[in-house]
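Posted in: Structural Biology > Protein-Ligand Complexes

Title: Requesting predicted complex, adenosine-5'-diphosphate in pocket

I'd be grateful if someone could produce the 3D structure tokens for the following input. Sequence and ligand are given below.
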Amino acid sequence: MDDQISVRIEVPAEMILLRPLDHFVRIFLGQLPEFSSRDDLINDLELAFDEAFTNIQRHAYTSEKKGPVSIEIKVGSGSLEFKFEDRGQSFDPSSVQAPNLDKPSEGGLGIWLIRQVMDEYLYHSEADGRNVLRLIKHFPRGAGNSP
Amino acid sequence: MDDQISVRIEVPAEMILLRPLDHFVRIFLGQLPEFSSRDDLINDLELAFDEAFTNIQRHAYTSEKKGPVSIEIKVGSGSLEFKFEDRGQSFDPSSVQAPNLDKPSEGGLGIWLIRQVMDEYLYHSEADGRNVLRLIKHFPRGAGNSP
Amino acid sequence: MEIQERDGITIITTDERLDAVVAPQLKDAVNKLAERSETKLVIDLEKTRFIDSSGCGALVASLRALIKSNGDMKIANPSPQAKTLFQLTRLHRVFEIFDDLEGAVESFTAS
Amino acid sequence: MEIQERDGITIITTDERLDAVVAPQLKDAVNKLAERSETKLVIDLEKTRFIDSSGCGALVASLRALIKSNGDMKIANPSPQAKTLFQLTRLHRVFEIFDDLEGAVESFTAS
Ligand SMILES: Nc1ncnc2c1ncn2[C@@H]1O[C@H](COP(=O)(O)OP(=O)(O)O)[C@@H](O)[C@H]1O
Ligand SMILES: Nc1ncnc2c1ncn2[C@@H]1O[C@H](COP(=O)(O)OP(=O)(O)O)[C@@H](O)[C@H]1O
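-- Reply #1 --
Done. Output follows.
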């Protein structure tokens, strides 16, 4: 993991940050050789990132004034990780029911979508009040060249 | 300064981060009511940000492997600040000569351009090796409405 | 987001992104349109590169509101990302989706 | 960045940004073109929304390399941002700048 590149971003979990962050992720990943001409993969990763941030904005911080979210993006030679830390309401992802796709509803797709496009959805809460969400995607080395 | 919004970003000072960061800044500022329909102002701010990051990438870290840069973007009710911290080579901005615009050359425009579009260019080095660059722009409250 | 009328059909052209930022706006606009019964609406995604679950939710809510007042909704011009998302969520079986705007508009006048 | 030839005139269409990321590429490409004497080059900025000082530097270097081998360079389609930047740096007095590609191309054939 010598050629790992890592980025840390701390923002308030406000809706106004969603688009700047999504664009950052998309343009950053789009420049990595691993993802060149892999628009489908970048779309998936942007979606997972977008859903995770939106959930923290909406569910971890329910009051008007939003708390902070700390984001880490790590790209290694064979995998990518988005790590989100918030200090809001925690929850138990295993208790969230999968959506019934035969009865489309207005919500309840976020976590399910993240799990569809990422390989791992790992969530835990620390004693100091931090909730840590890690989304991981594995890809073959040189995925960009052999789609 | 109650409605201040602040963002922190830590990245390696690599060229691959320039575009993701520039886009983040552009889209973030573009959504703030202060800058709505002020493309000229956003262009100026993107340019200042771009030049400051490029200078750190190029001059503060001269070796192949780049060190870290920590960026803070703060928007208050009447001003905006970009703060950059690097741990590389320091320099004395007051010793940098203004470019001779009658003899166009390939370089030497960066700091001058930043000073043209921002109100303040403040640079100092800390004892612990951090070099701190603060770029400040003042704008009238509600600038967006009365261009 | 732009709204226009053409021969009794309303066309909403969404922006580059149909995400949590604009989903409430879309729902509000369609709820207003649905006050009139039998509203025929086309959502033109031509400019929309990216849709998330909030965007999908707004589309589901929009269709539902229109059907309640005997209207209907068609979708035109999905991007590759939108197509993938509609397939994944099986919303392609819920929405009537057309590759171009004309097809969506004509499907109303034909019926 | 795209390079094409048209009636003995080379046209380079730059991407959305002409910044430190692509400046070396542009310089390399023009240096190669300048190996041939009397190269006529148009830099078409139609797609370019944003230029920084590295982009300006690459344009200055390009003009210089071409003139050295008796060629010339014109610029077409500057964005509002590019116009402002060229004025600020007074490069609008150094470069021949045209509002559209045709004007730039014709300025070569006319002379
Ligand atoms: N980051 C989070 N923090 C706290 N609760 C969350 C978080 N993400 C999801 N949840 C909870 O899980 C539920 C399901 O989330 P999701 O699948 O994204 O659908 P939706 O957001 O539409 O409800 C949410 O309604 C919320 O109660
Ligand atoms: N952040 C920085 N850290 C160290 N040195 C710098 C920094 N910014 C500028 N410099 C120095 O100041 C000089 C002038 O910078 P600038 O006006 O941006 O022009 P250029 O980058 O084209 O040389 C640079 O050549 C460099 O020596």
